[in-house]
Amino acid sequence: MTVAEYDKCVSQYSDNLYRFALKSLRSDDEAKDIVQESFLRLWENREAVLGGKEKSYLFTVAYRLIVDRVRMGKRYTGDESVLRTSPAPGRPDYNGISELIDRFLDELPPLQKSLIMLRDYEGYSYREMAEMTRLSETQVKVYIFRARTALRRIIGDINNIL
């Protein structure tokens, strides 16, 4: 991988990677750290990463870093409300639905939440998600099915949130 190819990857994938990390961690600083570390690892392993597989590599690294951060966060026993940021309710276009959906997603186990976000927010295929998470395609489908079932149970009727 040349410097120009690396720069192209940064410009192409940094925003998507940041959104994925931010949705998972809900911390701007931690999401930026994840993106930076993912691109650093891409550069360090540029000879080993096959051409055309940069995106998959980046999201795989980011996913694993996020899982590590979530595991570390579970050990934290302080006030978690300090760690979370939410949109300001005073904004004219604010209706609270996004925050509500994020709260419902937070009720899912971390793996299911990550898979839902990779599938529904980032548009990855089952095969790509299986490669990233080192699960089989069948396992990925099962986890997504369970997550969606749990979300339906949590949300209930869609009119409850509208």
Automatic annotation (TrEMBL):
Location of the RNA polymerase sigma factor 70 region 4 type domain: 99-151
A Pfam family per the record: Sigma70_r4_2
Family: Belongs to the sigma-70 factor family. ECF subfamily.
Domain of life: Bacteria
Keyword DNA-binding: yes
Keywords: DNA-binding, Sigma factor, Transcription, Transcription regulation
Name of this protein: RNA polymerase sigma factor
RNA polymerase sigma-70 region domain span: 10-75
NCBIfam families in UniProt: sigma70-ECF
